[in-house]
Amino acid sequence: MSARVHVHLVGWSDEPWDLEESLFSLATQEGVTLMVSLAVPAALEAFAREACARIARLGAPVDFHAGTPSTWAPDAAAAAIWVAGTVAVPDHLARSLASGGAEDVIAVAPACRVLRRAVPGRPPYLVRKTRRFASAAPSLEELVPDAAFLGRCVVPAARAPRWFPGPVEEHPRWAAEAWPSGPARRVPGPPAVDLPDLRVHRALRSMNDVRDAVADLRYQAPRWLERRAPLAFTRLRGLFHRLRDGAH
Amino acid sequence: MAAPKLALAFALLSPVAAAQVPPGLEVEPRVLDNSADARLERTVRSLLGATAYAWTGGNRGYGATHNIGMREAFAAGAAGYLCLNPDAVLHPRCLAELWTTASEADTGLVDGRTFPEEHPKPYDPATGDTPWCTGTALLVRPAAFAATGGFDEGLFMYGEDVDLSWRVRAAGLRVRTAPGALVHHWVEHRELTLERELRVLRSAAYLGRKWGGPGFASRYERLYRVRAGRSMERPAPPVVPPGDRRVADLAHGVRFARSRW
To answer: Helix, strand or coil for residue B113?
Structure first.
């Protein structure tokens, strides 16, 4: 029997594709059963009902509930709060649970920021995707620059505050209640979650921004070399592995 | 295609059971089985009907297999042929979105948007025009097949979608992405085995030789030699006329287009 996770999906705009993509991502999560509650703007309520019915026909083990519930699902092992537009790889929730859930640790998955451009009548166009830095024990200060940051967090049910945040402005307060009750830990592995980039200012303004830029460069530089000089890339990769293996 | 039975069933059942099919369009699922034997036959026929299955006699490669399917489908008057990977799951709106885009004038190929890891190749957000279409869920119109004869069977796996897209564009047809056509196909976590890497390198060298990029081809032939410990049998593809090479992009490595990330 796989563990049950309650995901509360919060609509933040009138963009229906954000909902559609988050629902598809939730329906394709593996190794968990899901309860998904949806709080969406009034303009999207009818669309949300249709989208849930559509996705349900895929046969995934997901229960959809419209509106904000009064409590977390009583049988849920963990809780997560997604802003519509959040998309995760299929093993994200299962790996986060395995990484932190049993020990009452908040699991924080490595994530990317996705900058999108609205396109009338079509899904938003993904302009850029950048890696975020993630420390071994992520602090709230490190996470909150992304308004959608709770999408990368899986919170053990025992540590989830008993209320449901609405607009993204309330999410840091919800997290601030959860964080002091125990540790938080980064889930190992590559980025598992794409967060919509809702920032107003995108220039480097803090040490966090610099660490994000370095994290992205560490990923992009080898890819650039691989495209420009694949032979040199292969040789350097071999050298790197020999050096790393020799260090053990 | 060789695939675990469950993945095959899920992938095929999802579009059939959950797809929103536009009025007036009939969808006829068909499994082309590239396995070493025909043991999937009973399962597929029981799930999808008696005519839904064909065993190809062994692994012919992606392009050669779909060529069989396209020849049959277009000979029977099909208005489109969807090449679908056996491990892909279509969003319920996917077929309708693909078809809407495919129905616009001069469209030869339409691909879906891979999910949850979107392919970084660009597309025009307003028109969907894209440098090439991925083969994960690729809708081919009869005009594209008539103009090209389908996939180049010299490419066993990888790059055949790029090559087909370039030939379709060279023939004056449009190659487009349907941004609303989400196709769940998660492959980023798969290990890049040496066998797969060598197939990529061989395809890259083949495309370089075919599309007038000898330097590009040599680079990947050298890399093949380093990785395999032996030289690649130098491919001898049909060479594309110089006038058609303008559509090819050999400046961005094996991504064959500028990357958005």
So the answer is: strand
